[in-house]
Write a sequence for this structure.
């Protein structure tokens, strides 16, 4: 029934942490995203799952197996508006987490890329 592009394909947002990221960075960023108001509401209603794991993509940004990622998965039928909200909230949450980490730990936080799964290359 769905012959449109967006909603059926765009149900996953990948948050990729680059070289230099530690397991504690992944856990801290995941916890931060889980507390973002809109993402938390979707999790509580069962419409969003947030999981961490090894990166799914090897490339120039993640040499030597450094790629770690957090995956935000929208469950069920999702319209483009909800997906866009999750994508924007994830980007905003990552920016806030990087600024917070910069203020509480020495050195620069790892680079983080937020990509819709359908746009991953």
């Amino acid at each position: 029934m769905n012959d449109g592009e967006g909603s059926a394909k765009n149900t996953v947002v990948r948050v990729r942490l680059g070289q230099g990221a530690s397991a504690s960075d992944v856990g801290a960023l995941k916890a931060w995203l889980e507390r973002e108001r809109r993402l938390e509401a979707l999790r509580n209603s069962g419409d969003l799952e947030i999981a961490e794991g090894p990166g799914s993509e090897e490339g120039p940004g993640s040499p030597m197996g450094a790629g770690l990622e957090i995956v935000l998965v929208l469950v069920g039928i999702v319209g483009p508006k909800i997906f866009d909200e999750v994508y924007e909230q994830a980007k905003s949450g990552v920016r806030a987490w990087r600024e917070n980490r910069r203020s509480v730990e020495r050195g620069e936080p790892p680079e983080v890329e937020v990509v819709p799964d359908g746009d991953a290359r």
User: Anything to note?
Assistant: The first strand starts at residue 12 and ends at 17.
